[in-house]
Amino acid sequence: MIENFKKLTIQGSHEIAEWILENIKNIEDKESILKEMIKLKPEMQVIKWIYKMIKENKDINNIKEILDTTFENTIKNAKKFLNFDAKVMTISNSRTLEYFFKTHNKKLEIYIPESNPGGEGKILYKNLLNYKKNVYLINDFEVHRYIENCDYVIIGADSVGENGVINKVGSKLLAILSKNFDKPFFVIADQTKFTEVVTEKDRMFEIVPNNLITAIISG
To answer: Which of 41, 111, 136, 150 has the smallest number of Cβ neighbours within 10 A?
Structure first.
């Protein structure tokens, strides 16, 4: 199982959480497996959250229900808060953002950098093509040309702490550019992502400090 877990390199936190819950449900020693997963992906707070739920003797179905509820409530709150037509920029591949964009009933023009290394932005782009007409995949080095004309920037998060959020490398650059061009910078993250303090250990991730964030939307 751990070898298959290591191959989950382009999926977002919510997808990985679903994969974990499906694959550990019939394993007796769930805690040991989860400890190993936490070591491999320390930035993903949702794995630590699942471990905490297991320690509290919550069953898998109950954990799934809590996960789905906070996921759905977060998207609902984001759509209520950002209930207007807009030009938007995001980054990387996020199930939360994918569903936010797919179910948003306003006209959105969405710009997605390729998000290298890894190219996760290409995945989000492909997943949105059949749902939204105005979706554009752009070069990572050209984000400054598009962000100036956007109404806001919105990203997902792997962890949310008192000192900022952790997300795919490139997120901090978007936040800095947003501040430079006076654009709102939003983070969308459900309750499973919250912790006290976030630290980055993998160069594929970085911390976006709170002073660059306009608001964190959750549910």
So the answer is: 136
In whole angstroms, how far apart are CA 38 and each of 35, 47, 48, 119, 146? 5, 6, 7, 23, 36
10-residue averages of pLDDT along the chain (219 residues):
89 92 92 94 94 95 96 97 97 95 95 94 93 92 96 97 95 97 97 93 91 97
Q: Count CB-CB contacts under 10 A for residue 8.
A: 16
Whole-angstrom distance, CA of residue 85 vs CA of residue 23: 40
77: nearest Cα among 69, 88, 67, 89: 69
Closest by CA position to 209, among listed 155, 160, 156:
160
